[in-house]
Amino acid sequence: MKIENFNFAGHKAIVRVDFNVPLDANGNVTDDTRIRGALPTLKKILSDGGALIMMSHMGKPKGKVKPELSLSQIVKNVSAALGVEVKFAKDAGNAEAEASSLKGGEALLLENLRYYAEEEGKPVGVEKGTPEYDAAKAEMKNRQKDFAKKLASYADVYVNDAFGTAHRKHASTAVIADYFDADHKMLGLLMEKEVKAIDNVLKNAEHPFTAIIGGSKVSSKLAVIKNLLDKVDNLIIGGGMGYTFIKAQGGKIGNSLHEDDLMPEALNVIKAAKEKGVNLSLSVATVAGDKFSNDANRQTVDIYNIPDGWEGMDASEQSVENWKKIIMSSKTILWNGPVGVFEFENFSRGTGDIAKAVAEATQKNGAYSLVGGGDSVAAVNKFGLADKVSYVSTGGGAMLEAIEGKILPGVAAIE
Ligand code: AMP
């Protein structure tokens, strides 16, 4: 079912949201982006006249009740955002009474789902690889089903709007969907937008399609790079991960970040790009520092010849110029990961210039641009360009798994 086509009047909806918001030491919300992200879905349900039950995790209590991770701390924020006095159920696994008395237009928030180990469904207190593990895992899977069934019993419609956990097969994100028929389960509006943004680049990209992959490690993005090689025209590899590619080709990289064990994979990527006709563009020169610090001495050096005692920390002007030309000629752009240590002001120019180029290609050339994955999102925000790109994804891990080509369990359970 599509949420746009469903009238919630007379229905009780249980909605998986991502309210895993950061709190300060006094339990005050320091960034309510995630709460605001869920509002379109939540407000639709209430304005249709439906009864709204919200459920989420917060942090990693690993099956234990941890008061500092209680969702009771955010009730006032959710109430203010929704404009409705939100009720609270202290025990997510025993909320029948609160759920059944809920009327149309009213809202209820369940306590942190991960107070129950059943939510994640991982056996607790048994080591992987021990003889007891398999039996414990099977038992936990059954308990997970029971927990999901219990959550499902509170409502007659299930909505998943938690993109941040869509790559997890948890009780509330996937297993619960088994207890609703196709007409009574749906993606929320935020999830729909995220899925569409990913489809826009992975399935319906207009060419030339350019991916900019930066960040620290090849190991964490290798699957992403491999999947993209079959889709993109241009692949820009920058940031810390670039030095593994340079060293693998015989370059001298000084103290730059690299992963020796991934050098063969880096060479495979270079070879595969050639075979597939993908234009792979690495940095040509780097702004190197003599220590990993904002106040390091700086010099711009040939990336294949970084002096001993120095490490590459930002893309040079020439590298960014080359990349800018590619970006400005693209119709689809995917950006994940900074091209330098952008947290240090003195080494942030390259990443800032990439953010500007992506924004310019979007605004001036009508390119479709998707920015996603933790640090590149922080970067577009830092440079005030979030509303100048086509879409900024809210889910780091989920977005990465999607661009690896994996099916997200949270989406598959509904579709
Ligand atoms: P990731 O989470 O893999 O996207 O990596 C993001 C991190 O990579 C950021 O914290 C950057 O500071 C870091 N990074 C980017 N370029 C470099 C570099 N040349 N050397 C060290 N760290 C880098």
Automatic annotation (TrEMBL):
What SUPFAM superfamilies does UniProt report for this protein, alphabetically?
A: Phosphoglycerate kinase
Q: What class of enzyme is it?
A: transferase
> Which residues bind substrate per the record?
D18, F19, N20, R34, H57, M58, G59, K60, R114, R168
**Annotated positions binding (2R)-3-phosphoglycerate:** R34, R114, R168
The record's subcellular locations are: Cytoplasm
Q: Extract the InterPro entries matched here.
A: Phosphoglycerate_kinase, Phosphoglycerate_kinase_N, Phosphoglycerate_kinase_sf
User: Could you tell me what reaction this enzyme catalyses?
Assistant: (2R)-3-phosphoglycerate + ATP = (2R)-3-phospho-glyceroyl phosphate + ADP
This protein's record includes keyword Glycosyltransferase: no
> Could you say which residues bind ATP here?
K221, G312, E343, G373, G374, D375, S376
Tell me where on the tree of life, at the top rank, the source sits: Bacteria
EC id: 2.7.2.3
Q: Which UniProt keywords apply?
A: ATP-binding, Cytoplasm, Glycolysis, Kinase, Nucleotide-binding, Transferase
Name-wise, this protein is Phosphoglycerate kinase
Q: Which species is listed as the source? A: Prevotella micans F0438
